[in-house]
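Q: What structure does this chain adopt?
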Amino acid sequence: MKTLIGTFCLAFIFLFPAYADAGYPIIVVAQDGSGDFTTIQEAVNSVRDFTPVRRIIHVKKGVYREKIDIPSWKSDITLRGDDPESTLIYYDDYAALRQMGTFRTYTLQVRGNRVVLENLTIENRAGRVGQAVALHIEGDCVIVRNCRLLGNQDTLFTGNENSRQYYERCYIEGTTDYIFGPATCWFDNCVLHSKSDSYITAASTPENHRYGYVFYRCTLTAPEEVTKVYLGRPWRAYAAVVFWKCRMGKHIRPEGWHNWRNPENEATARYAEYASEGEGANPESRVSWSLQLTPESALSYVPETVLGGEWFRKLF
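A:
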């Protein structure tokens, strides 16, 4: 049954581009009152629970100050902006505010399955005040395509160890641990922009999950003043992260990875690279407990294996 469910979810990902506008109901959000709703949350709430038909929510250009939740009973929703430059969603909660903790600070939370986010900017504007999540995803089979995820510490939370998430052509920025969590994620052709000397990833991959984060053909950037960035540190002992054919700027530290001040993590963390490029690619200087994959071992780090389904390569 688990295999069948995984196949269905990935079949959805493959088929989505073909049927995105094929007669499915469209709900329009426009701040000037010309649409069906003026807020995104109202549009989400209007979708029938456990809808049997995909619903497309078209968010017209504008700046939306909203804290949005797509609950688990609101699956099969596409949230689509006009483009990420003109369709912006933001909020400004942070962990220390009223002692809310990290996991309630989101600007947009996705708990429904088979949700697609496209052409949006999702931002947490709290500033450099500690943990402040922009996008929080717990649903399974979630696609984030052509979006900008903006924040500082903890910008993107990939929650739920059984969640599978696919990111394509996204810009993700932050300071510390700005991509973190236990989900299995594939990042294709994304830009990871570090705003301070710190850490990009803080994966908490479960021990019994072979794959965690895979960054494929991504570009790692930073301002000139940022010069000491680690690829990641293990939030939990068995963190799994692979950078595959990524271009790394000179801000990436030669050693690459950090043990989070716990030498025991060196025996369990699963950190690897394959064919890194750029000034930050220093395979001979990486920590001894990380791996440089061979062409043969890299073959398992492809979308159809990481997310399941041999036909998944057709996305490319």
